[in-house]
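thought: fold this chain, then report.
action: predict
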Amino acid sequence: MVSNKTSSFIDHLTELRKRLVIIVIAVLIGMGVAWNLSGTILSFIERPLTGQTYLTEIKKKVYLKIKERAPALYSHFKLDEEIAAPPKKHLLNYSAPMEPFFIQCKISMLAGFILVLPVVFHQLWQFIAPGLTRKERHMVVPFVSAASLTFCVGALFFLIVIWPVIISFSLSYETQGLQSWLNVSAYTNFCMRLILIFGLLFELPILTLILSRFGLVSYQLLAPKRKYALLLSSIVAAFHADLITMFVIMIPMYLMYEISIWTALVFGKKKAVFPVTMPA
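observation:
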């Protein structure tokens, strides 16, 4: 005879499988919708390779300020040649016959996943809903809307602000004897991985908001853990090879934790359900 605990566990697995199937179907539909947009998305990802980014505009403005304030310094370092130099365009390369097709599949899948984020977060909410009160279940619309929006904000923040910095830093190593030969798979895989990381990073305050409203975490619990959050951010960032990428992952990751702390202070319950006594 099957025990109640075993039956309950099987029911949870069945419910989880149901939610995952719906998510997979939704992502496949989103992938089909985004298929024709994959070329436009790839062009946007390639934009830093053209040399025309907000960084070049900032550099020009800085150089012109130097020319205005310190013309001798401007002439000594020949900054006028840098301003007048045309941007160097870099092209992506592929070495396998079907490589562009698989890249199109990956880009479409990621774009499709982002398109159906409301469905994904709704299914996650439906999975945990049986353990919530009736009042808490009514938070489904704010949760789905906020979670979808913050993920998109994190992804766009990375693509618009961080991605040009990473690529400009990488291309700065080019010399007469050292030229870049960027592979389309390595380039897009690296970019898509970071899009997911930044999207998930921006979900941290939303997760903290929900947990703090349920009384599972509090400001008093999170605030003393800042040093551990900084250490964890450094460890996660250390998995990336170059120094600039490490910093652009570590800093936003820790900032999201800091925002989460203040989110718990403002929106959380006065006392956590599971109070934790911090050692002196």
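thought: worth noting. The chain has a mean pLDDT of 83.
final: tokens above.
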